[in-house]
Structures are given as C-alpha cells and as structure tokens.
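Quarterly update, task 2.4: flavin-adenine dinucleotide-bound model.
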Amino acid sequence: MPTGPIVIAGAGIIGTSIGYHLARRGAKVTILDAVQPGSGATGKSLGWINATFSKRPRAYFDLNYAGIAAWRRLHLELAGELNVQWGGSVAWFPPGPEAEELRVNVRNHQQWGYAAHVISETELHGLLPLVSPGEIAAACHSEHEGAVDPLEVLTILLEKAKGFGAAIRFPCQVTGIGLTRDRIQSIQTTDGSLEASVFVLACGVGSPALARMAGIEVPLKDSPGVLLHTAPAARLIHRVVLAPGTHFKQALDGRIVAGGLIVAGVGTAIAEASVEQAEEIRRLLGRFLPQVKDAPAERVTLGYRVMPRDEYPILGFAPACPNLYVAATHSGVTLAPLIGELASIEILDGVQVKMLEPYRPSRFA
Ligand SMILES: Cc1cc2nc3c(=O)[nH]c(=O)nc-3n(C[C@H](O)[C@H](O)[C@H](O)COP(=O)(O)OP(=O)(O)OC[C@H]3O[C@@H](n4cnc5c(N)ncnc54)[C@H](O)[C@@H]3O)c2cc1C
C-alpha cells in the first residue's frame, strides 16, 4: 500500500468510485474537482448499466458484464441507500437490416453467456404495456441490465468516501504536475500545492491536457450526446427502452430521460445540432410513449462522452510516469464500480489485474 497520500483529480463517477474503494480500504485519499462533482459527462449521462451489443470483442464484453456484477455487489454493499432500477432493457426494430442484425447480435451475446433473448410482440407488450412500438420485426429483452441516477450514486459514494476519511475539494482545478525525473511529487491546483505518492487522473475530457504535462498520451475523440428530461410523470415503464432512433428510461422521480445520437452536418455547430436533436428525441418519445407527448421538457443536456480514440478504456499506471494512474473510459457508468474495485487492487496491492491488460495507457505510447 502506498504510504503517502493518493490524489484523485476528477470527481466524476470514475474518480469517485476509485476514491470510495481506496478510502474503504484505509488509503489516505483526496478527491479534487475543478468545478463540482458530477459536472462532467457523469451529470449528463443516461445511466444505463449494460453489456449489450456494441460491447465487443469478447474481452470488452466480459469487462462490461463484470461491470454489471460489480453493480450488484455495490447495490448489496450499500443496501437500502443506493437505488438501482433493475429490470433489463427491451430493444426492437421494424422490418429491415437492423432487425436481422439484432437477431444475430442476440445469438452472439447468448454464446458469450449473456442473458438476452429474442421476444415476441406479445412478450414485448407484456414487458412494456404502455409503450406503442409500431411495427416490430425483431425484439429482445436483456434481463440483467439496469439503470441508475449517476448524480445520486456520485453523491452517495462521496459521502461514504468522506466517512472513510477521504477529503473532497472543489472547486479545485489541477493546473500543474511537479515531477522529479519520471515520478510525480506534487500536484499544483488553483487552491495550492498537494503532495502525492500516487496521482489518479480521472478528469474525463480534461485528462489529455494533464496527462501531456507528465509526457503521457491519453487520446480522446469528440463524442457529444444530448439528453432530454421531461417533467415527472406517473410510472409508465420499468426498464430501459431501446426504440428505433431513441432510447429512454424513467427515473425514480418519474422523469423520462431520453437520448439519441447527434448527427451534425458539415459546418453545423454541435450546440445547434443538439437543439435539433432534442426536438427529434421529443418527437420520437411522443410516438413511442404517447402519454408524455405533451409533457414539457424540463431540461436538455449536452454532454461530452469520455471517448478514447479506439473507444476502449484507458486504465492503469503509465510506464513513463509510474505513479500516474490513468482512468478514462466510455460506458463509465456501467464500469464505475468495477473500475473502482480493480484500480484499488492495482494501486494498493501493486499487482496488475489481468482483465485490464488490453486497456493499458502504454498502447498509445
Ligand atoms: C449523453 C451521454 C449518455 C451516456 N450514457 C451512458 C450510459 O447510459 N451508460 C454508461 O455506462 N455510460 C454512459 N455515458 C458515459 C458515462 O457517462 C461516462 O463514461 C462517465 O460519466 C465518465 O465519468 P468520468 O468520471 O470519467 O468523467 P466525468 O464525469 O467527465 O468527470 C470528470 C471530472 O473531472 C473534472 N476535471 C476536469 N479537469 C479537471 C482538472 N484539471 N482538475 C480537477 N478536476 C478536473 C470535471 O469537472 C469533471 O467533474 C454517457 C455519456 C453521455 C455524455
């Protein structure tokens, strides 16, 4: 176990989960955030916990499936305090190539041991009685998935981490890194300098600039995403819905949260495209869930996914700076409890977890 303080930059769901797991094991942890906890991608996330069909190849599927299991563990550990809406997801497509692709994807994931199966139209109506799906050529239910309110989880984990002695400081932006040869000795912030025996970099889209100060590449690409939040409605759905063109859930407070992919034409600013996208999400939501057709949109958020250039997580100590631990990933809600568990093992026990081998920062060196 490192004897000195561990400084974590970034109080998104990843930095917070790592901080919680480290503090729980008795490490001396400080978590810093430039703005406030959850102000990055975490506060603009759907919060769907899944290992569905984009999670490939097999090793990445396994990581995400282990991520679901880690949520089950965390849910048990914080029984009565943490809300996870289990119930799986339901997806469908009208006739066309996507319907065929869905069947193939389900088959493939079943061969990997995933609890997903093709369902009939009658079964879909049973699972989503108030949804109007339109024509269905293929549908499936992925049973083990769930959803959380990422900000609620973040708040609980930060409180728990504090209870284990962690310090949380914000607004406190990391502005510089003090190196002696290849090792970090101190962290400069807008609130003074801090000694660090291990520095965990979990700043989301802010990570590449800080990593560069230590001579490390954390290459990310732009990946904006819009979510529309309705006013609270009576309970309409009990699982995540993946409809053609949009996906949505109903949070515990009754709000429907719906997203879609931003398609920005050449020369169109993302902010502009996101306004159009929000309108399109609203239109599709009204079509699939007519009960909220006229519900006012309370909020539209535009978030930037923490999307590594090759779309796979970047996790682990950087060989060129051996006390810098990088944690940058998409699907960060799904993976947060698992990454917290595994990063704390790597940091405190000095081992390399085999499951994380494909995701080392050194692949970009
Ligand atoms: C629209 C959208 C939908 C999504 N849906 C899902 C989903 O359904 N399921 C899923 O698993 N994932 C989803 N994701 C992805 C998931 O939300 C992210 O992978 C996850 O939130 C990343 O968390 P993070 O802690 O790494 O980063 P962030 O949440 O971005 O946190 C980084 C933090 O670092 C702070 N910071 C930045 N620079 C500095 C600095 N110099 N000093 C100190 N602090 C700094 C920021 O203020 C911020 O709070 C979605 C993302 C988006 C945008």
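Highlight for this quarter: The pocket of flavin-adenine dinucleotide is lined by residues 9-15, 32-35, 39-42, 44-48, 173-174, 202-204, 206, 210, 225, 227, 259, 303, 305-306, 329-334 (CB under 6 Å).
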